[in-house]
Amino acid sequence: MAHYSWMRFLTPDVAHQDLGLMCLGAGVQRGPLPVVGPRTLDRHVAVVVTAGSGWFRRAGDPPQRVVAPALLWLTPGTPHHYGPEPDTGWDETFVAFTGPATGTYTRAGYITPRHPVVPLKGTDGISKVVARIVRALRPANPLVDIEAAVAVHELLLVLRTARDDSGAADRPVLEALARDAFLPMSVDEHAARLGMTPAGLRAVVRRASGRGPKEYLLSVRLGRAQELLAGTDLPTTTVARMVGFDDPAYFSRLFSRKLGMPPSQFRRLETRTAARPEVTCDVPSPSSQDPSCSRADGADSPGRPGAAG
């Protein structure tokens, strides 16, 4: 029984490193595929097994059973060895990538080097993103590096949401924290309110959001503060108290540290004002009735002298 294999590889220009991720290749393979490795890579590879079963082994660890749908994380510098059942094979897609953003995605729990075999709930969303990467890799595509890099960012997101532990059960905890974020409560008090231990709350919030409870609560508070500064005329002191800061001076210092500017400057940059439209006219005289004189926004007065029609 023969196997099917399609793959294409890229050599992105180093200028694209600023995108955070660079796609190095992708492939689709099906059937009784040959065993891979033992080998060690210098890049990240996400291998999504969409049908069939097999095994995976990382150096120093016992073999792990792989049953579709599943994700295999191959990470730089980690020896690994894997393959499908020899009689039945499996179907897989893979995407290889690199870039400085891999560290951020790893710290946030999207890439899991310590857990290289990840059960998935499904692969429909993953398949759609991989299909976009495959289309981007078509020959003579002048935008291939950009299109593929953007799709890799999206791939990491759909891989995270497709995991069996993607956090659907944790979402009510985040929603409750967001609802109560403006109350004068410590993390321990939030945990007690939710019927959890502080350690349990920290574990849930970090698993679901990639950050600790304090950082999550602060992001909610500062997000709401920005909305109020941009959308209302409320004094900064009032905004500070509305989002849970009794000390407006501390709020301003924290806001400046996190956003790189004080609240007053943020408000000036984000507030929309009703400005009078400029008037442009080829003839400098304000009494001119030349048709070339009009409002900059293109709106003419229907009954104005000299107006056409």
Features:
single chain, 309 residues, alpha+beta, nine-stranded antiparallel sheet, two-stranded antiparallel sheet, 10 helices, 11 strands, 37% helix, 21% strand, globular, disordered C terminus
Describe the overall structure:
With 309 residues, the chain is of the alpha+beta class. It contains 10 helices and 11 strands. It has helices at 101-107, 124-136, 144-162, 171-180, 187-193, 198-209, 213-231, 236-242, 248-259, 263-270, and strands at residues 4-9, 22-31, 36-39, 44-58, 64-67, 70-74, 80-84, 90-98, 117-119, 279-280, 294-295. The strands form 2 sheets. Strands 1, 2, 3, 4, 5, 6, 7, 8 and 9 form a 9-stranded antiparallel sheet that branches. β4 (44-58) and β5 (64-67) form a beta hairpin. α7 (213-231) crosses α10 (263-270). The chain starts with a strand and ends in a 14-residue tail after the last strand. Residues 285-309 have low confidence and may be disordered.
